[in-house]
Amino acid sequence: xxKKRILWISIIALxxxxxxxxxxxxxxxxxEVESVKVENRTITEIVSVTGKIQPESEVKISxxxxxxxxxxxxxxxxxxxxxxxxxxxxxxxYETAMSQLKANLDNTKAALxxxxxxxxxxxxxxxxxxxxxxxxxxLHEQKVISEQEWxxxxxxxxFAKADFESAGKSVLGSRYNVQSVAARLEEGRRNLGxxxxxxxxxxxxxxxxxxxxxxxxxxxxxxxxxxxxISNMNVMEVxxxxxxxxxxxxxxxxSADVKVDAYDNRVFKGVVTEIANSAVFNSAQxxxxxxxxxxxxxRLAPSSYSDLIKTGEFPFLPGMTASVDVKTKTKAGVIxxxxxxxxxxxxxxxxxxxxxxxxxxxxxxxSGVQTWVFLYNGGKAKAVEVKTGLQDLDYYEVISGLxxxxxxxxxxxxxxxxxxxxxxxxxxxx
Length: 430
Prior knowledge:
- The structure is a single chain.
- Strand 19 and strand 20 (395-400) form a beta hairpin.
- Residues 23-27 and 348-353 have low confidence and may be disordered.
- By secondary structure, the protein is of the alpha+beta class.
- The chain folds into 3 domains: 31-44 and 335-348 and 367-428, Beta Barrel (conserved putative lor/sdh protein from methanococcus maripaludis s2 fold); 47-55 and 234-329, Efflux pump adaptor protein, beta barrel domain (Elongation Factor Tu (Ef-tu), domain 3); 90-195, Helix Hairpins (Orthogonal Bundle), CATH 1.10.287.470.
- Helix content is 33%, strand content 33%.
- The longest helix is centred in the first third of the chain and has 50 residues, at 92-141.
- The strands form 5 sheets. It has a 6-stranded antiparallel beta barrel with strand order 2-11-14-13-12-15. A 4-stranded antiparallel sheet has the order 3-10-8-5, with no helix packed on it.
- It has 6 helices and 22 strands.
- Helix 2 packs antiparallel against helix 3 (147-194).
């Protein structure tokens, strides 16, 4: 009886093990996937960046002289024409300086006149002394006059000569003084004129930072105070920072699609007009943390926003945020697959990858990162190593590994990226 019970227990246990094994064997469900056919497409490589809108032409207005602003003729956003008066700085100090310089000029001119009169007298005395000297020399040679009289004639001549030369130098000094004061007077006249500041170009007043009553520093003292900017709002550009990995892809003349936060879902056209030759760094960052960027400017095409332009109004304002997709390179008729269908696996660090299965498929044994897609092959996944080229926002160019008509697994993305492996059973989503 006891042996019979043991036999039945053994049979039941065996049945349970068989059932469990069968359940476990059939427990792994077929993975539901999405798939697409490989086809030829046009791939446009894109560098995506963000930046700020600014006028392409912008003139900074600073004062040439220091003083208090007594009249401000414009406001932020006003349109101005070239030569229009913008503001006036208190001219009293410069008018006083002009009066003093005019008085100094009159004095130096009077001194010059006196020096010239003295020169005329000295010249006459010198000429007379010269005649006397010649006559006395002849008489001395004839032994008519004494030695003392001859020495007196020589002394008088030398004195007259020195007096004449001194008078000549005095005239030269007076003339220099007149020229110096006249130059200072002319500079004072220019400074007085600089108290009125005019628009150097037509445009719109932007970035008005000073008001009536404020004191400004002239450009004679370092950089001077920036008072406002005059911007040409008819031609706008986006200034962006491009990192060093992408800057080599961008060239002058590349086209771009521009989206501005203020205009939802509207795409404007642009073109690259300027690429910096030197990198810019964030001075607030440590040297080891600094990101190397290059400034790139993209001009917005007015034809792409002509419907937004109204008289006296402009659709874009300086400082608006813009997202830019620069189209750097285009290839037509290339084999392409969705980005979601491509995965990179590194068996050394990716424990979920079946190294043996992928190694059997790879052209060379896997020793690092490899690029793969999975074919939908009769209800099973087939891992295929591929080489990719250009990439746009949605597709990769496939240089090798696939052909037109192949069916590749395009989703779910998490399975493709991590868990899907060669030989896994699949079924298409309905």
